[in-house]
Amino acid sequence: MKDQQLPDVETKAAFARRLGCSRQNIQKLVARGLPLDRRGNVVIADALAWVSANVGKPGNAPVDSAAPGIVEAKTQLILLQCEKAGMEIARLRGDLIPRHEAATQIRAAIRTLRDGVLRIPDRHAGELAADLGVDRTIMAARLEEMLRNALLAIVDVPRPPYWELEALAKRPMPWESGGLDFEGVER
Fold it and tell me: What pLDDT is recorded for position 45?
């Protein structure tokens, strides 16, 4: 992935686009303390943290004061969009990788570990047999049997549902599925 330069600051209008709200809402947030630099631009990382900490919390006025149900929905939307923007920044910086890529790398590491464990009898049976005064072939066979049984016992341990790549492909993030759905939002 190309190393992209991410801006540290952006205009209020750009920040409004990032959150998917109006510039007027950003102005209301600025009046409540949204962090700006000395030139009046939004400090992105600080502003995202501020929005997460301050928008919709008890004792804070909502961004907009329309009907109560709409206010709650708008507040939840802004918080989700703030979280999405933070995740996108982390992804662009290389702090996050796709789930399927992580699962693939974990599986490769486990295969490497398994192969290393299964090579132990060939590598160390002679040494152990000499130390214990037993036949090398018997020692190698017994070690292999014990290690295979241990690996088979691990296979029987239930795996979490996110382990399978197929399951990962079926669980897109809310913004990957074409929009935010408030009915299915998990908190």
Answer: 82
Residues 6+ apart with CB under 8 A from 160: none
In a domain, 83, yes or no: yes
Q: What is the pLDDT confidence band of residue 5, given thresholds at 50, 70 and 90?
A: low
What residues make up the domain containing 147? 99-169
* Contact between residue 51 and residue 25 where contact means Cβ atoms under 8 Å apart: no
Residue at 182 is within a domain:
no
Q: Give CA separation, 115 vs 103, 124, 151, in Å.
A: 18, 15, 11
Q: 111-166: per-residue pLDDT in tens?
A: 898 889 889 999 999 999 999 999 999 999 999 999 988 888 887 777 766 566 55
> Is 42 in contact with 12 (CB distance < 8 Å)?
yes
The torsion defined by the Cα of 149, 155, 158 and 164, in degrees rounded to 10, comes to 180
CA dist 29 and 109 (Å) reads 46
